[in-house]
Amino acid sequence: MEAIWRGSKSFGPSAQIFAGVLANHYEPPDGFNFDIDSTNPPVQDDPELFDYNLEERVDLFVQRALEQAKEFRTNHLMWTMGDDFAYEYANTWFKQLDKLVHYVNKDGRVNTFYSTPSFYVDMKAASNETWPLKLNDYFPYASSANGYWTGYFTSRPALKGYVRKLSAYLQVARQLEFFVGRKVRGPNTDSLEEALAVLQHHDGVSGTEQQHVADDYAKRLYISSIESEDLVNLALQHIASGRFSMNHTPHLEMVTSQVSSQSKATLRAGLNFQQCPSSNISYCPQSEADLSGKTLAVIAYNPLGWERKEIVRITVSDYKVDVFDSSGNLIPSQIIPVSQASRKLREQHLKSIRKPAVSDESIFELLFECSTPPLGYSTYYVKPSQNDSYSSEYTLIQENNENHDVYLQSNSAQYILSSSSRLLDRVKLKDGVEVSLRQSYCWYNGSDGNTEETRGQASGAYVFRPNSSSCFPLTDNIKLSSVKGSLVEEVHQQLSSWLSQVLRTYKGSDHAEVEFTVGPIPIDDNLGKEIVTKFSSDLESHKTFYTDSNGRDFIKRVRDYRSDWELEVHEEVAGNYYPLNSGIYLSDNSIDFSILVDRSMGGSSVTDGELELMLHRRLLYDDGKGVAEALNETTCMGDDFSTCEGLVVRGTFLLDVHSTNESSFSRRNLIQRKLFPLQLVFSVSNDEDGWLSVSEYSAMKTGYQLPPNVALITLQEQHDSNLLLRLGHLFENDEDETWSSVAIVDLQDIFAYRKIKHVEELSLTANQRKCEMKAKHWQIENDDVQPGSYIRSVGFVGDGYQIELRPMEIRTFSVFLE
After folding, report:
1. Could you tell me which residue ranges the Glycoside hydrolase family 38 central domain spans (predicted)?
2. Would you say residue 688 has pLDDT above 80?
3. Quick one: pLDDT band at residue 690, thresholds 50, 70, 90?
4. Quick one: CA torsion of 805, 807, 809, 814, rounded to 10 degrees?
5. Helices 211-241 and 190-199 meet at what angle, rounded to 10?
6. What CA–CA distances, in Å, run from 767 to 566, 685, 712, 770, 813?
7. Rounded to the nearest 10 degrees, how much is the dihedral formed by the CA atoms of 452, 454, 455, 459?
8. Is 492 in contact with 407 (CB distance < 8 Å)?
9. How far apart are the C-alpha atoms of 659 and 615, rounded to whole Å?
10. Average pLDDT, stretch 151-161?
11. Which pLDDT band, with edges at 50, 70 and 90, does 788 fall under?
12. pLDDT tens-digit map of 429-483
């Protein structure tokens, strides 16, 4: 039941851990639950009482230990005493455990004592036992032949998306908190960090909690995000004012005293920074404000360590606008009317939260290209045109009723929609190679578990259990309209009254973006539904596809196959589903097709050449794994919130088709951009106050950016004023001919305005010095890896603060600045 686990092929034995599966879930052996409401008999050691059972209890204890010992190497066993909802009163537990420790040791057949996981592993390591080797990971889990725990990869997709969005926002807030100095009494990032941390519970972001608990999680996230929003606004105000010292960072409450009276007036009157957390429903009161005699400043903050150039889109209330960069140059822009699907979402949600809004008829999306420095921001200014001659390219959404193919052009590929299916059909690459890529939508019918064929296992929050392998199509009578412009080309597709998507390509980008809107999923037929989109290609994948492991390694998956044992297939679909945190791809060693996601979800390749994503789930039965509630999410609206309908989920994913030798770099770069999008902040002010003193800013040395194979993972000021810094190599060994190489980073170049005084390298979790860590040595069965074949980076290169990063390495530092 225990093995040495090497989860990364890039690290090999340098990152292996001792892993195991407990004998009884994580509960005690049968008969030894002593919580306050347990029916297991306590140890009665008074022979004068009728229920005296000491010998019986000791014998059963020894029997359970000997039974378990058959499944474990060495004579050490670990019993975890407790369980879900079964550790509510410590006194009843310890009263019985104290007795068992005393009497079992007195019996002498088994030695028992209170211990810790650390001591347990120490004893295993000291045994000189030889251990089996486990590679890759343990997905997918199953608790029975028909009980694959692959549904939670998608369960509560809106909550998963909210967690991903605020995780990126926490990165932004931490960085800005460091730039301007941390305030202990707030606003600071503590509350958002804590709220997101709580969501990492295995029944949190997984979506396997009851509805009222999910509501509470979302409420905590929202409340904490408000404080971080205040921090971001205040920090950017002070940087944009240009009046605080960047050479020595003061705390926020001290910055204001250093600003001149004129700049203070500007802060009060002109720099009222606000953000738009509801932009996913095309609602942003700041950018939609009447700009008569005013200027809208749009700050685009870039949390990545690289320069980036992207198209941004905001809602505005007038199409007669001009956009200027920070140097006052008029730049190209494009105006698109807000789509019908977005208008519907906007109207419904604004009514539910009783927010006033500009008339839907006068709402547009403004797009322009934004260039931002690494770890910094650029500012763009939107002003009403002075006359009827405006610079924004106004593009209408045109209905496509004609029977011909529709083309979308990206920088390196052409995406072609079929005249018959009205969905994506093929992709033509810049070298002329054409790849068949047919999109479809369908739904699996979630099992109710009530028939002999379903063997009692329903589909629910944890378990994905379709009634059959059939996925019922959702692609009849698609209504199609399109937008053609110089910055973006879009096709809007209405597949049903509750399902729509937008397929778009941006100027200068190699990929395509899909924005999906799913819900409310209908259940008036009493059938639970799991909504899937599929992409069928002509790539010869030979049952093989790749999914990411926590956004780092991509792990090879083979359909209906497990490398550790011979799999007996009972669930053709659910048994081949895997978690996608960043993405999934196919390869035929010539062309790679990747899908990169904006939140965790489930996906698979159930058929050769095909990828599928599960986007949303609405089910009517509990799966019996602990939630005790069906996964049936609803949104309630109206004056008394009594009108409820199924939850609507909106999200995006990217499609990337490249030659195999170019695909890794494109995929890794897009993952980072998807994970940490530009953060937009707005300020509306009178024309004379509208231009910021500091319209561009970067914390890095002028002209410097991180190497393309290195990501900034953490930049956070600690409570004792030192800085926590994590840098990660983005590529695996042999993943890319160019970028799977050792990267060099000079830490001082990251801090343009501060000088490094001292640096200590820490463990990944930043709770011990790297030099104090001691790896355990394990003897492993059939291990053909030669000692020293996997080298890890240590220390610095030369006399300064240059460091090396090898493939997939994350290095963590405590940095002390002058």
Report:
1. 147-221
2. no
3. low
4. 20
5. 150
6. 41, 46, 19, 9, 11
7. -150
8. no
9. 27
10. 97
11. low
12. 988 889 999 999 999 999 998 766 556 899 999 999 999 899 999 977 899 999 9
- Quote the CA–CA distance of 151 and 644 in Å, as a whole number: 24
Beta bridge partners of 727: 712, 811
Mean pLDDT on 600-616: 97
289-293: long-range pairs with CB below 8 Å, 24+: 289/317, 289/684, 290/317, 291/318, 291/321, 291/382, 291/383, 291/384, 291/684, 292/384, 293/686, 293/687
Cα-based angle 166, 213, 174 (whole degrees, multiple of 5): 20
DSSP state, residue 719 = T
Mean pLDDT confidence for 649-671: 95
The pTM for the full model equals: 0.93
Whole-number Å distance between alpha carbons of 264 and 173: 23
Task: Specify the residue for token string 């990063």.
Answer: 805
Could you tell me where the DSSP H helices lie in 9-76? 54-69
- For 591-606, the pLDDT digits (tens) are 999 999 999 999 999 9
CB 57: neighbour CB atoms within 10 A? Answer: 23
Residue found under tokens 């369960």: 155
Dump the DSSP string for 427-495: EEETTS-EEEEEEEEEEEEB--S-STTTTT----SS---BSSS--EE--SS-EEEEEE-SSEEEEEEEE
Distance, CA of 659 to CA of 589 (rounded, Å): 8
349 CB contacts (<8 Å, ≥6 apart)?
278, 281, 283
d(CA 760, CA 815): 7
Which ranges of 130-210 does DSSP label H, i.e. alpha helix? 157-180, 190-199
What's the residue count for the chain?
818
Residue 388 dihedral angles phi and psi, to the nearest 5°: -70, -10
Q: What is the DSSP letter of 142?
A: B
Higher pLDDT, 477 or 17: 17
- CB neighbour list of residue 717: distance below 8 Å, 6 or more residues apart: 174, 177, 178, 181, 182, 723, 724
CA distance 230 to 183: 12
The whole-number pLDDT of residue 579 equals: 97
Count Cα atoms within 13 angstroms, Cβ side, for 59.
4
